[in-house]
Design goal:
The structure is a single chain. The protein is of the alpha/beta class. The protein has 2 domains: about 80 residues, Methyltransferase, Methionine Synthase (B12-binding Domains), Chain A, domain 1 (Orthogonal Bundle), CATH 1.10.1240.10; about 120 residues, Cobalamin-binding domain (Rossmann fold), CATH 3.40.50. Helices cover about 50% and strands about 10% of the residues. It has 10 helices and 5 strands, in the order H-H-H-H-E-H-E-H-E-H-E-H-H-E-H. A 5-stranded parallel beta sheet has the order 2-1-3-4-5, sandwiched between helices. The longest helix has 21 residues. The protein is globular. The chain starts with a helix and ends in a 33-residue tail after the last helix. About 30% of the residues are buried.
């Protein structure tokens, strides 16, 4: 069974809230030799993208969206216990997100995948005040921070969090990566919120975080205003009158 066929078979029971049918399809795929990591990338992630898109387009109601998200979370919890883990890579990541069931779930999936790739993972979730997030960053000194947002209203909050972390110099070498629907739908938005990296999918997130260079710290004192250069006045032109 191809990944496309599996996704097609999975979506109908998922949207109807049929938990048992969804679990049976996933178990069937594992029995056929499909790796749990592949099911994360090729089934659960695209299924969540479709659910989010259908909900935004008013093709499904909130009840269907909530049931689908919870089924996917249950399936992901099952897959996580069967996922092979690679050796530790000596890198650390904090994963935060906007407050919301689907955002929390996407953050959880990314946490599972980074952990399977050998990262030390700290899943923060959503709803944590900016100063407490920055305090955690300061204590852990992570290689990367990932922030997940899906709604247009999430972008200003993400920008404010990034500004705060950078302003106080919590971890100057840490790269910040954003992901989620709002950044997928608005090209260039990740740059406007001052992120260092953008990942459209979990696969991209893993690759970009693994290959990212440490961020070059700002040479000025954190929080200090930029020094303005004093303009030089042009020399005065003195007209010398010749004596008559």
């Amino acid at each position: 069974m191809s990944n496309r066929d599996l996704l097609k078979r999975y979506m109908n029971p998922l949207l109807r809230g049929e938990r048992r049918m969804c679990r049976e399809l996933v178990i069937e795929a594992i029995d056929e030799g499909v790796q749990p990591r592949e099911l994360y990338h090729k089934l659960i992630w695209p299924a969540m993208e479709r659910v989010d898109e259908m909900y935004r387009d008013d093709r499904i109601d909130a009840a269907s969206e909530h049931m689908a998200t919870r089924i996917n979370r249950t399936v992901a919890d099952h897959l996580q216990t069967h996922m092979a883990h690679r050796p530790e890579v000596g890198k650390r990541i904090i994963i935060a997100c906007a407050s919301g069931e689907s955002e929390e779930f996407v953050a959880q999936m990314c946490a599972d995948l980074f952990e399977a790739d050998g990262w030390d993972v700290f899943l923060l979730g959503g709803g944590v005040p900016h100063d407490e997030v920055a305090s955690l960053v300061g204590r852990l000194q992570p290689t990367t921070m990932m922030i997940v947002g899906s709604r247009p209203t999430d972008a200003p909050n993400v920008r404010a969090l990034i500004d705060y972390i950078r302003e106080i110099g919590a971890c100057p070498s840490m790269t910040i990566m954003v992901s989620g629907g709002v950044f997928n739908r608005a090209p260039g938005l990740w740059k406007e919120v001052k992120a260092d990296l953008f990942a459209e999918t979990a696969t991209e997130a893993l690759e970009k975080a693994a290959n990212a260079e440490p961020r070059k710290p700002d040479s000025r004192i954190p929080g200090a205003p930029k020094k303005r250069r004093r303009r030089r006045r042009p020399p005065l032109l003195v007209q010398v009158e010749e004596n008559a």
